[in-house]
Amino acid sequence: MSGEPDAPAPAARPGAGTPPVVELEGAAFAYGGAPVLTGVTGTLAPGRALALVGPNGSGKTTLLRALLGMVDIVAGRVRVAGAAPGRARPGSLGYVPQISDLDPDFPVTALEVVLMGTYSRLGLLRRPGPALRARCRAALDAVGLEHAAARRFGTLSGGQQQRVLLARCVAAQPELVLLDEPFNGLDQPNRDALVRILTDLKNDGVGVVVSTHDLVLAREVCEQVALLAGRQIAFGPRQEVLVPRLVEEAYGSSGADRLLDLGAR
Fold first, then answer.
1. What Cα–Cα distance (Å) separates residue 51 from each residue in 61, 128, 190?
2. CA–CA distance from 30 to each of 70, 181, 237 (Å)?
3. Are 135 and 11 spatial neighbours (Cβ–Cβ below 8 Å)?
4. Half-sphere exposure for 239 (CA within 13 Å, toward CB)
5. How many other C-beta atoms are found inside a 10 Å radius of the C-beta of residue 205?
6. Do the bridges between strand 35-44 and strand 49-53 make them parallel or antiparallel, or are there none, so unpaired?
7. Please, what are the domains in the chain?
8. Burial of 78 (0-12, 13-18, 19+ CB in 10 A)
9. What span, in angstroms and rounded, lies between the C-alpha atoms of 224 and 53?
10. Distance between CA 59 and CA 6 in Å, rounded?
11. What span, in angstroms and rounded, lies between the C-alpha atoms of 178 and 226?
12. CB under 8 Å to 226, separation ≥6 — which residues?
């Protein structure tokens, strides 16, 4: 059996009464033992971005993985794209891992990586047809890499690989995109390209969650910030969260230096 189903409708633009793409109420998370992150409460609307920030071991990656259904929720309530974590409809979530988590020797092209993002919606035994391939090429073009469609993924630079993974998300037309430290080690051109792509996703009504150490990025890209330190320090608008008292509560003595970096940009 071959062919492809009708293309899913693009994510709805945010508006009055639009339900959140992420809801957290007093949530706590654990890896089979004592909770490693507690007291997380907040929401994210479609077309907005949330930065998860805090020191090493604060719970940023834990929360990101919890939204994907990969970490136990031991208290509170969590909803992602209208469902329990791991239960959202196929294709509604996109995930961009850290480049260090990928195998550079995996023998696939950039276009094949993008096509993988659409498989969950194709159904059993279906193969991507011309329309879907064209949409994936358009997604590569949207991130400035259509010319690299036939190149082996592992030969691309780290920044280009991140952009291919974002194209995979774009092609799948998700409601929510989750990114784990996407800007680590990127040069300024690739950083600027990723900022533009994330802005385009938000303009299309897609929610974005970014785990990052970079407070400048959090302010530049994200309307909301969750400040973590094994517990929630604050969750809300960036201008209310990225303030001296709260940043120093999360980071301790290094908080002042991070605020200086933030003020310099």
1. 11, 34, 19
2. 10, 21, 27
3. no
4. 0
5. 19
6. unpaired
7. 19-88+178-183+214-264 (3.40.50.300), 90-174 (3.40.50.300)
8. buried
9. 11
10. 39
11. 14
12. 40, 42, 50, 51, 52, 53, 63, 232, 234, 235, 241
What pTM was computed for the model?
A: 0.84
Shortest CA distance to 81 belongs to which of 26, 117, 44? 44
- Burial label, 101 (beta-carbon count in 10 A; 0-12, 13-18, 19+): exposed
| 19 DSSP 8-state letter | P
Q: Which of 84, 139, 88, 90 is nearest to 110 (CA)?
A: 139
Structure tokens given for 142: 């949207």
pLDDT digits (tens, 9 = 90+) for 113-168: 999 888 776 665 567 778 888 999 999 998 889 999 999 998 998 888 888 988 99
Structure tokens at 214: 């970079």
Q: What is the pLDDT of residues 190-234, one digit of tens each?
A: 888 888 889 999 999 999 999 998 888 888 899 999 999 999 999
Q: Which two tokens stand for residue 54?
A: 């805090």
* Neighbouring residues of 245: CB distance < 8 A, sequence distance ≥ 6: none
